[in-house]
Structure formats: structure tokens, C-alpha cells
Amino acid sequence: MTALRPVGLIARREFASRVRGRAFVLSTLAVLVLLGVYAAVVATVASGEDRATVGLVGPATALAGPIARAAPAEGQTVTVTTPPDVAAGEAAVRAGDLDALVSGDAARPRVYVESEPDAALERVVVAATTSVARDAFLAGQGVSPGALDAAVAESGPVIVAAEPPDPQAGARLGLGLAGAFLLFFSIQTYGAMVAQGVVEEKASRVVEIVLSSVRPWQLLLGKVLGLGAVGLLQLVVLGGAGLAVAGAAGVVTAGAGLAPTIVSVVVWYLLGFALYATIYAALGSLVSRQEDTQSVLSPMTVVVLLGFVVGFNLLTSDPRGTGITVLSLLPPFSPLFMPARIALGVAPVGQVVLAFALTIAFTAGVLALGGRIYANSVLRTGARVSLREALGRARS
């Protein structure tokens, strides 16, 4: 057997046992169901919030054209109907067939609604009545409303921007934040799972049997690779479902930097998981009981959580700022925030290369140090192993 063959066997065992496990299946299905419910709610709300049906009766029918012209400016799609009379129109409002009934004088009409008018629809009606009143006044003064509109249309400032606005800025921000959250969730979840698996094997003494055939670094690397593949699989499934939902809602399009974001998320996930999983495995090897696991993981969890919260706020407030730039260059947090800055298009190539190099070097150091701690602690049961003891000379 080559040195890496046991690593592959351990990785496959970890991957198969976790993927077939009830926890992985149920958690993935639960998130997918939540995404489906969210998509249905968004679709239902979106289908109704920008549409309205208005009835016009009597002289108010003159508002049909002005309403049609005013609606797009408010993001509304207004359908105009003409009930036979006011009573029929009011009955239709009470039945929910009409959002509003407009009757009376076109310049100052009576608007009948069930409870209170929708704010956007009210602005549309106000704009329409203002247009009718203005045109009537201008006509009385002998001024052509059309000529005035043409003169006004030719006026106004010409905006010249140093940097043209990015029409995909909102989509890029959403992709960046979603990527940061998914990476944080996956790394934390499966990193902690590595630690729990180490403690389980120590408590059951299974690790003693396994280490009679393989070396500690092979077992550690196999566990990290196997659980990393599980996390990556779930990341791909949930990320793909999320992108499908966002695409169906029109939030994300194929031209919003999608491909570079996906590639950077995957690459930085692999780096980040190798980094954090090694730390968690080393910390898990210090204890022999599951109830003690949280005590050794808490300091690391708190540091990562605080860094994530601070970085998330900096990313939303000022993605080009010094704070998030520095944070994205620091190896423990680069896997979380550099993909987000890449998605936003605010990370220069030099910073990306520097962050990648620093993370590679830092991860290599963590692997060496974590492997030493793991090798010195994984066979020691009973009392918690101190870091000083764990960092001593490896036992043969």
C-alpha cells in the first residue's frame, strides 16, 4: 500500500457514512424545503404587489390614459375597467375584484377602496389627476400641453460619472453575501463534525485499532478530506438550489459574475475547510468525552463568529474599505470574505494572489502543527491533554 492509499480509504469511508446518514439527508432536505417555500412566497408576493385593477366610472374615464402613463414610473401594472355604474363598481371593490373605484370629476375624483389605498396605486392616481388638471389649465391659457411636455423633455442635467454605475451591483452583493454565509455555515458545521468524530473514536477506542494499521497523519488527512467532500457536496446542492431560486425570482442573472464567484467559492472553501478542519481535529484530540468537546472548541468558534459578524457588516457597509480589505487578507478569514469581494469586483488581482499565498502558507503551518497535536493526543484517554503536552515530541 502506498502512503496515500489509506488516506483514500479513510476519506471514502467518512464520505459514504456521512452522506448516507440521516442527519445529512434531513438537514439538506430541510434547507431545500425552506428554499422552496421562500421561492413560493416571493413569487406570490411579487405577482400581486405590482399589479392593480382600477374601475373608472363617468367623467373619471378620462383618467384611463394618464393612469396608463403614470403607472410605469411607480413600478405598477394597472388594469383599467369600466363598471356599468358606481354601485356595481363599489360591489366589485368589496368583493375583491377591484382594488379601487374612481368616479366623479377627473381632476378631483372620488376614490372608493375597501380599507385604505395601496401607496403606489395612490401615487399613480394622484399623478394622473395632476396631469388632467394641468392639461386643462394649460388649454385654458392657450398653451399646448404637448408642446410644453416636449420642451421639458429636452431640459435637465447631463450626468457624467467617473465610474459608470454597475447594473449588476445588487446581484453581485447578494452573491458575495450568500457565498460568505454558505462558506461560514459549511466550514463551521463540518469542521465541528471532524472534532466530534475524533472524540467518538477516542471514546470508543476505535482509533487504537485504526492506528495499528495507519499512521496518525493518514487518519487525520483522510477524515479532513472525507468530511470536506461531504461539506462540498452539501454546499453545491444548497448553493445550486439557492441560485435557481434567485434566478427564478430575477435577482441573479448569468452575467452577474456568476462563474467567477462559483469558482472562487469552491477554491476558497477547500482551503478554508483544510484550515479549520485541521484545527478542530487537533482540538478534538485533546479530550476523550463528547461533553468536553464544546469546551475546547468554544474559543475557536467565538473567534470565527466574531470575525464573521464584523466582516459581514464591513462587507455590506463599505466593501472597498480598509477594514474588510485587511480582514480578507488575514488567512483565518480570507476563505470567508475574499470570495465575496471577488464577486463584488472590488478585489484587485494582487490582493487575491496575496491572500491566496498567505492562506496556503498559513494552512501548511496549521497542518504541521495540528498534525503534531493530533499525533500526540489522539491515543491519550482520560484527562484532557494540555497544549504543552500535545506540542511535545510525538510518541512513536
TrEMBL record:
InterPro entries for this protein: ABC2_TM
Membrane topology term: Multi-pass membrane protein
Keyword entries, A-Z: Membrane, Transmembrane, Transmembrane helix
Domain ABC-2 type transporter transmembrane as annotated: residue spans: 23-370
Main subcellular location of this protein, as a coarse class: membrane
Subcellular location: Membrane
Spans through the membrane: 220-246, 258-283, 295-315, 321-340, 352-375
Annotated protein name in UniProt: ABC transporter permease
Organism: Actinomycetospora chlora
